[in-house]
């Protein structure tokens, strides 16, 4: 793949994308929990550690190499940087959102996956599995998340006793996937509280997956 943009231009776009997505993450997760990253080639921009969300500007977003070396920025990167970098090294995603949103985290505490009770679950590639518990901020947590998503074929997973992580093509896509999982987790748990949720049949769910594959604008054909 060739990229005619300069490194500085790419890094600037990544930092702006993070700062732009931060309010949506802030709305989903309590306090200063959660983090957001975006990748372009071997560069990763990620929310800084311990900075209130409302104070994050493009210039305060650290940029790292895929190996975790600091490239730009004075602030320390998120404590969950090892998880983000580990996912980028293994899965084909361009952005990652991590939140402790209450409904997905309720499933995390129950150790229960999100079953296919609504077609929006297909937005993340399938029923949302639960990665086994590992301490926050560790490489082991990254490995648990990667192997759980790889074996389920999803771009999101619930982190046991912790929260939710969702990947996407870009920042907006990752956030939308996180929102889809969180809102469906809420509906599922509310439905469970008063009755027995009805799951889509495998054929219905596969139909929804196929619709997501063809959803949106037609792919632009860049080939001559
Ligand atoms: Zn977390």
From TrEMBL:
GO molecular function annotations of the record: aldehyde-lyase activity; metal ion binding
Class II aldolase/adducin N-terminal domain ranges (all copies): 16-189
Domain of life: Archaea
Keywords: Lyase, Metal-binding
DNA-binding found in the keyword field: no
Presence of the UniProt keyword Metal-binding in the record: yes
Gene Ontology biological process terms from the UniProt entry: pentose catabolic process
Gene3D superfamilies: Class II aldolase/adducin N-terminal domain
SMART domains: Aldolase_II
InterPro entries: Aldolase_class_II_sugar_metab (IPR050197), Aldolase_II/adducin_N (IPR001303), Aldolase_II/adducin_N_sf (IPR036409)
Cellular component GO terms, alphabetical: cytosol
Name by which UniProt lists this protein: Class II aldolase
């Amino acid at each position: 793949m060739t990229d005619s943009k300069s490194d500085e231009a790419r890094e600037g776009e990544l930092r702006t994308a993070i700062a732009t997505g931060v309010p949506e993450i802030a709305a989903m997760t309590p306090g200063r929990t959660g983090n957001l990253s975006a990748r372009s080639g071997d560069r990763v921009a990620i929310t800084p550690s311990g900075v209130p969300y409302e104070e994050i500007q493009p210039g305060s977003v650290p940029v790292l190499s895929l190996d975790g070396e600091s490239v730009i920025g004075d602030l320390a990167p998120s404590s969950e940087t090892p998880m983000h970098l580990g996912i980028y090294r293994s899965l084909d995603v361009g952005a990652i959102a991590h939140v402790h949103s209450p409904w997905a985290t309720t499933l995390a505490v129950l150790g229960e996956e999100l079953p296919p009770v609504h077609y929006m679950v297909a937005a993340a590639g399938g029923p949302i599995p639960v990665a086994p518990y590992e301490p926050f901020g560790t490489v082991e947590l990254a490995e648990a998340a990667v192997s759980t998503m790889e074996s389920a074929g999803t771009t999101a997973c619930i982190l046991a006793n912790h929260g939710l992580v969702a990947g996407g093509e870009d920042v907006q896509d990752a956030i939308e996937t996180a929102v889809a999982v969180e809102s469906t987790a809420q509906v599922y748990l509310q439905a469970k509280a008063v009755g027995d949720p009805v799951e889509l049949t495998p054929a219905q769910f596969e139909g929804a997956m196929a619709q997501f594959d063809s959803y949106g604008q037609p792919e632009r054909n860049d080939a001559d």
